[in-house]
Amino acid sequence: MRKYARKMKRIYLDYAATTPAHPEVVKAMQSYYSNAFGNSSSIHSYGQETREAIEIARKKVAALINARSEEIIFTSGGTEADNLALKGIAYTSKDRGNHIITSSIEHHAVMETCDFLKEQGFRITCVPVDKYGLINPEDVKKAITDKTILISIMHANNEVGTIQPIAEIGKLAREADILFHTDAVQTVGHIPVDVNEIRADLLSTSAHKLYGPKGVGALYVRKGTKITSLLHGGEQENRRRAGTHNTPAIVGFGKAAELAQKELQHESKHLTSLRNKLINGLQKQVEHIYLNGHPTKRLPNNANIRVDFVEGEAMLLSLDLEGIAISTGSACSSSNLKPSHILTAIGLQPDQAHSSLRLSLGRETTEEDIGRVLEVLPQIIARLRAMSPLTKSSMQEKTNA
Amino acid sequence: MPNIWHQYSEKVMEHFENPHNVGEMENPDGIGHVGNPMCGDIMELYIRVKDNIITEAKFKTFGCGAAIATSSMVTEMVKGETVEEALKISNQAVAEALGGLPPVKMHCSVLAEEALRSAINDYLNKSKKED
Ligand code: FES
Q1: Parallel, antiparallel, or unpaired: how do β-strands A327-328 and A356-360 relate?
Q2: Hey, which of B64, B91, B98, B104 would you mutate to test ligand 1's pocket, going by the most ligand atoms within 8 Å of its Cβ?
Q3: Do residues A82 and A113 touch, judged by C-beta distance below 8 A?
Q4: Do B2 and A328 make contact, defined as CB atoms within 8 angstroms?
Q5: Of A14, A37, A151, B50, which residue is most buried, by most CB within 10 angstroms?
Q6: In chain B, what is the greatest distance between 2 CA atoms, to the nearest angstrom?
């Protein structure tokens, strides 16, 4: 592996992939490795200690989404939460029906679980999105049949950042008496999420997206909702998720949730302004740059742009050599050489998907960082455009048109 | 595997950062224009031929780091070669000259080989017509 060579401050702009654990989170976790190390299932004082710590964390996670403690199931992360929601409800409700409604822009954890359920005989309907990545609740409504047991629509998209009208979808699901799950991995801790307001019956979240540790997440399951467990072999989580508790991670998740609740307002405002500065700055300096996703209904920290005539992996690589970390939906950077299904779903042509970059900001992002991207990225684009056979003809076409 | 490029060799990085022979050519003797069926990238390659010897080669590429590096390398490799010798340059040879490519990036070197073939064929077709 090539070591990144030049000496400079690195700039991390991939917070949508993962965030660094907050120092207070790390501090909170520390005593649960070798001091308070007891198994939460043990009856003695060691077990008591960790049991209490876990319940405190559960309260904090619940509070962040306005849920009750007993409605939180701790999991190994967002992926497990999604798997549990979909498979758990599918198994439980299979006598009532076999139809699940989801969207074309879900995270792989939902998408591939749906593919799996399809093989098991379930019927899956994928509602489309418009060019902004928005789902029309009417499409969801139209897809409902008397066999529908679950609607699973993500809260905000991880790639293009579009925030879905899930309160409306939750409402129509409730009216039709169908369970509603939302993958809120990208939103919890970043924008207000209230399970009652959106009428979610199930909601997935993950700690490492909100400055908590990796390897822990949670599924909210509304009180009274029956769900089949994926893991058997213990009493934990009310028999809904067996396995010794990962106490340090759960404690860290609790701390992260507590901090997020405090900082959410300020953070989303701050990031929105930095993000707009970034998008406007790039569009001002460089021609043929377009925003992917919705201009206003989007995550505060997400800037997903299309830089025509340049391939994304080449830009990613060039930025990384400058110490700037971002991500791309380009086919060249995926192992199966297919462009991201999300960019395809919003109607981008393959070459446009090729040219898309995601810059996602976070707590540590500064004005200077954005300034540096605005200085470096236009140069990289100019260099790569000079090399691109698409540049000349396309630019002429566009000027003529 | 978004981080596949971490497997790029020093040589690949060198050619990616400072590619040789970038740009278009005025009145080339042969032009190759190929698209990559795998991921959809595009490469254009121009050659100048004098007395059956390729004296100059240039390229334009819309593609990943490996595609840019292989374009750069192949334009270096053909210079000074006869047309027949140039036709024998394989994508493996280009990849080897770059110190190897990650397996998922081998198709990018195929694109370079095809661009070269197509430029040479263009030249051969044109010169046939002139005869
Ligand atoms: S050009 Fe697309 S992977 Fe190399």
Answers
A1: antiparallel
A2: B64
A3: yes
A4: yes
A5: A151
A6: 52
Q: What's the CATH architecture for A3-20+264-389?
A: Alpha-Beta Complex (3.90)
List A183's β-bridge partners, or say none: A204
CATH topology of domain A23-260: Aspartate Aminotransferase; domain 2 (3.40.640)
Active site residues of B: 39, 108
The token pair at B15 is 């050619």
Supply the pTM of this predicted model: 0.93
B77 contacts B97 by C-beta, under 8 angstroms: yes
**Helix runs in A163-246, H state only:** 166-175, 236-239
Domain ranges for chain A: 3-20+264-389, 23-260
Q: What is the mean pLDDT of residues A210-229?
A: 98
Provide ipTM, 2 decimals.
Answer: 0.91
Which residue has tokens 């022979």?
A: B21
Q: Nearest CA of chain A to the CA of B39: how many Å? A: 5
Quote the pLDDT of residue B128. Answer: 82
Residue A152 near residue A85, CB atoms below 8 Å: yes
State how far the Cα of A74 lies from the Cα of A79, in Å rounded to an integer.
12
Question: Which residues' Cβ are closer than 6 Å to ligand 1?
Answer: A 332; B 36, 39, 41, 63-64, 66-67, 105, 108
> Average of pLDDT values for A362-377?
97
